[in-house]
Specification:
Number of domains: 1
Mean pLDDT: 87
Low-confidence stretches: none
């Protein structure tokens, strides 16, 4: 298994797409590979940071955005 295959497995793990059977293989490989372990740590840090910055959209925001985009398109026609 090459570095690229290992990175693909790490990405699948963080995307929630890695089979449970392969998780054992992944963590075994991480214990043996410093570069892959650093890559895993970096992705984990990014995931943690993005989860902490997530905010709920205000009620009706999507509708207001779509309305304003429609209004802008109408103005361009004139």
């Amino acid at each position: 298994m090459g570095q690229n295959d290992l990175k693909i497995m790490i990405n699948e793990y963080f995307d929630g797409e890695l089979d449970k059977e392969k998780e054992t293989l992944l963590f075994t490989r991480l214990s043996l590979d410093d570069e892959a372990r650093d890559y895993f740590k970096d992705l984990n840090m990014i995931k943690t940071a993005t989860e902490q910055t997530l905010e709920e959209f205000p009620f009706g925001l999507e509708e207001r955005i779509m309305y304003s985009v429609g209004s802008m398109n109408d103005k361009k026609k004139f």
